[in-house]
Design a protein that fits this description.
- By secondary structure, this protein is an alpha+beta fold.
- It has two domains: about 100 residues, no CATH class; about 210 residues, MetI-like fold (Orthogonal Bundle), CATH 1.10.3720.
- It is built from 15 helices and four strands.
- Helix 2 crosses helix 15, helix 5 packs across helix 8 and helix 10 packs antiparallel against helix 11.
- The protein is elongated, with a radius of gyration of 26 Å.
Amino acid sequence: MPTEEPGSLSQWALIRRRFGQHRLAVGSVFLLAVLYGLAVGAEFFAPSTRQWRDLSHAYCPPQLPRFTFEHGFYVPAMKSYVDPLTFKRTYIEDPTRKVALGFFVKGDAYRWCGIIPWDRHFFGVKEHAARRADGTGLTFFFLGADKYGQDVFSRLVYGARISLSVGLVAIAVTFLLGVTIGGVSGYVGGRTDTIIQRVIEIVNAFPQIPLWLAFGAVLPADWPPLSTYFAITLVLSLLGWTGLARVVRGKILTLREEDYATAARLLGASHGRILFRHLLPGFTSHIIVVLTMSVPSMVLGETSLSFLGLGLRPPIVSWGVMLKDCESIQTVANYPWLLMPVVLIVLTVLCFNFLGDGLRDAADPHPTR
């Protein structure tokens, strides 16, 4: 089958072809798809529910699954003892007891996305009833447990739903504000453009982190979790639209005098139709690139506020909330697996940055390579 010549392809087909040549960007797309898939199906992929805890296994170290043809997947049961002098809990493996693991096992009942009732989990302990009745050995903590005996891996999966969705929701609001305000500024011009640009300069003049902290401190501590979630999203959006507005304004200033825009005005098209129907689609790829590069800052913003206690709070589970347990250096030194949210945050930020680089190179009409 003959391949199409580049000159016969549409703009979006050329972007897809150039993007496919960026291996880091393509790999980042697949990895982000896995992370968002885990977030959407958190109840199914998490071995434990968000509320389950086992105080008798607080700070239990990670248990990596093992496999033999005789026993299949399993982990040795954990025995704990407390040092009478330091009161530090120490865990050792009990080779005489094995915790059988399996796929699509029966576990705690849940409602997927709050709608579909089910009790199956992708991976976990087979003896679910014995696990709940006997809390002395039949436990499985893939990435360890926290101070309340909660499964860190399960909380990471549930936290991905909040931390990753905050970035997307904030970007959606940022898109509406940036495109609308920046488009009006570039298309109308004159005094309106001057006022909008001065407002953008004032917003950009404030240090970002102290301004985040100020907004976070204003949020009432007794607000319900859902209200706090949307408030944090709104705060991140109100501080992140200026960069997109500047990009949109610059492009509109360039395109508003083009022949097709002038022809639309002469045919009687309204200003709104010219702006949103004729001008904005001309640089949609650039808008997508800017939005993609902005997602990491939104994720880091939510993490920073939650870590400092000014953002999301328990019982909400997010990566920033989980990092609250890492405020003590001694805790991190003794239980390093509590830093796993940092690994996912860094991985997510890198993936979005690589994705943005790939989209930027693909959307460049004059590539250098």
